[in-house]
Amino acid sequence: MALAAVCELQRSLVARIERLHPQARVIQNYSEILDDPKIDAVLIATPVSSHFSLALAALRAGKHVFVEKPLASSTEEAMQLADEAHSRRKVLMVDHVFVYTPAVRRIRKLIDEGAVGRLYYYDSVRVNLGLFQQDVNVIWDLAVHDLAIMDFLIDERPTMVSAIAAAHVHGRRENIAYLNCFFDSGFTVHVHVNWLAPVKVRQTLLGGSRKMIIYDDLEPDEKIKVYDRGVDDNDQANPMLQFGYRLGDMWSPMLDRTEALLSAVQHFGECIYSGSAPTTDGRCGVRVVQMLEAASRSAAMQGRPVPVEGRKPAAIE
Amino acid sequence: MALAAVCELQRSLVARIERLHPQARVIQNYSEILDDPKIDAVLIATPVSSHFSLALAALRAGKHVFVEKPLASSTEEAMQLADEAHSRRKVLMVDHVFVYTPAVRRIRKLIDEGAVGRLYYYDSVRVNLGLFQQDVNVIWDLAVHDLAIMDFLIDERPTMVSAIAAAHVHGRRENIAYLNCFFDSGFTVHVHVNWLAPVKVRQTLLGGSRKMIIYDDLEPDEKIKVYDRGVDDNDQANPMLQFGYRLGDMWSPMLDRTEALLSAVQHFGECIYSGSAPTTDGRCGVRVVQMLEAASRSAAMQGRPVPVEGRKPAAIE
Amino acid sequence: MALAAVCELQRSLVARIERLHPQARVIQNYSEILDDPKIDAVLIATPVSSHFSLALAALRAGKHVFVEKPLASSTEEAMQLADEAHSRRKVLMVDHVFVYTPAVRRIRKLIDEGAVGRLYYYDSVRVNLGLFQQDVNVIWDLAVHDLAIMDFLIDERPTMVSAIAAAHVHGRRENIAYLNCFFDSGFTVHVHVNWLAPVKVRQTLLGGSRKMIIYDDLEPDEKIKVYDRGVDDNDQANPMLQFGYRLGDMWSPMLDRTEALLSAVQHFGECIYSGSAPTTDGRCGVRVVQMLEAASRSAAMQGRPVPVEGRKPAAIE
Amino acid sequence: MALAAVCELQRSLVARIERLHPQARVIQNYSEILDDPKIDAVLIATPVSSHFSLALAALRAGKHVFVEKPLASSTEEAMQLADEAHSRRKVLMVDHVFVYTPAVRRIRKLIDEGAVGRLYYYDSVRVNLGLFQQDVNVIWDLAVHDLAIMDFLIDERPTMVSAIAAAHVHGRRENIAYLNCFFDSGFTVHVHVNWLAPVKVRQTLLGGSRKMIIYDDLEPDEKIKVYDRGVDDNDQANPMLQFGYRLGDMWSPMLDRTEALLSAVQHFGECIYSGSAPTTDGRCGVRVVQMLEAASRSAAMQGRPVPVEGRKPAAIE
After folding, report:
1. Less CB within 10 Å around the terminal CB: N or C of chain D?
2. A200 chain-D contacts, CB cut-off 8 A
């Protein structure tokens, strides 16, 4: 893979891009990229509202496409992109970047090995004094990360989503939100996102019947701590019997320090060469957008739960 | 004030109480206390379900009453207690113990002085690997603290409450819950309580237009941190203009180290002598139980918001 | 064991002691205790300068003796106490209280099992805004803890001790000190103690060839963290070859929550009944006082190392 | 200022430098730089042992010189460089990089304003699992930072320096050291540096009669915390009177986020244009090397204090 061209509309950035990437053309006309037969793949890092049209044009021009999260601004659009990629046999990958971090991969491994046991809850706090986005609210900007992580960690799909959101600054989009996912198994997901917090927090609790995990993305070394703590629910037949509290060791596995975005782009390249589907392919992008959309609908009803649209993109089943 | 008698049914504790309080009688029959004309006041620290009958009997016997939180297990009962105390001119105080901590009192002072500005949100995390209660779930055991703090900090009353709760251990009450309060002013309250977390967290964020506060009750010295951070929303007429981010100093006021329970009991004594109403009187206890009840109803409907019963105890208005 | 009598000269404390220990006599005359044949053992918790005379009198009166750290204010005195206890076959125990904590015991176990490997260094920070003692400086008040821990953890004795100390408050004893112990094996010990620090710190690093340990006594749960990190010094024959850095997992063993003072007193009782020597017996007390004395001599010479007096109490060898 | 040429002997790095700095020549022969009349200034970032010859040659070639810390590997060499720069009227600046951080500059301001009061102590811990340097030990690699900070913060010069150092890895330089500086005023400085610690720590305590400061360079936002805590030594005439402990607020000033190296290079440029002396000029570099040299001599004598050479570079007085 080599960088052939960069399309940048903001004139003030052109010089800097040229200095960093002297081998690449810097252009203002997106169609130059689409028309260039030597370009195989396109990476789209633009405001969410433009993902759909840019990605669709690229797929139709026969390019493989890598899109920043979320895949699109509606389920309808996301499904159309997934369908288009499928019918044209092109790789469509959405950059759910945390899926490519060593921390999240390690948690997935711990779940797969059975170390965590039956999953109880996923609880995430993702807050900071953050940039108010123009075209999306805090759910689409920050909660999308947790939905993508959750989609990667567990196979079960939520039946319903609810969300509460508030806009505290006049004339601005919602800056604080609380999002829940409901599952048939009893697993619960909760996400707190906030652009108006005094300090930055990135902390996730994952509770299971065998172990509990704290994942703190701001810790330089000990991002994951695995606690052998919980309640031993020995005698399910007789709940009146006292159960025991388990207070065991804590363990923090060393993680490699691979840069997630680099891993993601390499994965994209490998999928192009091998023809295999990326971990975070179009279908995955659709699932996350479906949850975001349900969250938006719920937030408009002060948190009434909303069913997650079950229909999967027909063409790719 | 002096301790005259302790009523303890658990035989194994009697010796220990006698050793700690050699001047007090240790009895098994509650009516001995009610019948003793030299006893002016009764402190009730029993399971929630017994608060109502024990407190009512004490009030009817002409005693002043101090009850652990929450005041009772239903609004109906709580209101009856408040009415009874009012009509008999006895002091009824509910032990919302955080209201008597130097930290919460200092936050109230900051709000009153206008330092915090317009209140945006109250967000609290109160989790640990905790004792599963037999007669109440985690909302009535832990979220009650935040409802009591919030009731003390702000004058506005919520219009609706919603809650989501889940029981992850077979045959046990709900161990995890997320509770929201909705206010006409746009202020939002969120509380996360959990008996099944690997570590103990007691952290509250209070966001306002002028300052943001982090209150961490586990910090030995710096329980309160006041941040001069936020978004300056200068031009409300033209929201398209960029607003500025404010990144100022942090300040942690020294707090005195008074023991909250001691302050609460002293306050109870002063109210008896002066005839004044306690800060956390029967009406306050009713308000908190109303919110707890609304939360329980909402939790049964997966978080649909429920109006908080507006009726105030008629007799005491 | 039962508490028979408490000798307390401060009148203001008598009532409180009587309330807490109604079964014990509270007296002002120490000889009443020594003369009472029903009293077998004496616990001495008084200023350091009085340890020697009080303990000696008790041993001579045929009592077993438990003394707060340090055993005495000079090697000479400490040795005389050890000799006296030995010749009278009485138990003399010094309350090096950290030796009886689950954390220090666990570290000892890790060392004994070989998990830590060859010991490199012990580095301790023990600072806070503390009570300036009247009769001892910060070395005898705080560094004594680390010398006692080190004496327990390792079998090697230091050959030399050095210390630097400074008194920053007019007319007061030294409030800050840095103490070093030198060992033939190359192991190094460093202790920083300070009564004039803004916050409380109790943190010890223990470096070894196989593992490194952080022991933080203020952590509620994770007091010990064991790191699989270091430098692999594979080819000692050819130091020019690059060695490898080892960056492995961290592990925090769960510790029981036994109260150290309780464990110490129980151990004292067991030694009386069994006739065995306590872990922190008179000889141990002598060793620690020898190091403290060497530290004081070094501090008077701005840190010139001073040999630790090698002579062991003759009678007990 | 513009980058004209980079001299890099390591072939493997040449391509990367060329990509990052397409406008600069990448050469292997240092004299090409010295001979180029269009080059006014040279930045030297090489192993310590080469600083002297490279800087001297540059000064003799009429260049202004910016050298990484420490200025040279001996006082003799450092003084010769300072003299050379002085006599040729060239700017010689040593990159004591922490002197150009917003945090250290703010601490200096607090001292200058009198907020800290009389200075009691500076205590610094600078440890991590670090790269063992080939040509210098941990004192010359890490403690140099604290000596440079201290030289900037206070005007008093130490009379003596002592140090203890140990090499725990066979065939390698000292990886752990403790360094002290002694001052006539009673101010004390202590520095703990370690290449073999399990975690990274960068924490400095600065104690004064009015305020105490904690400076933690790893904190993202609150690098400086100012505590209104201490001991009020009111009645110096009668030290037997109890003094009072002061337990006041903590305050963390917001710091700007200027990159220190950038500030340093800008300062270098300004000094060239204006002809003024840099904050960290040759004399400053000499002072720090004098302390490093005294520390090395002391470490060879297990911490016996060594006077700091008082002679200042004659030519520049």
Report:
1. C
2. 220
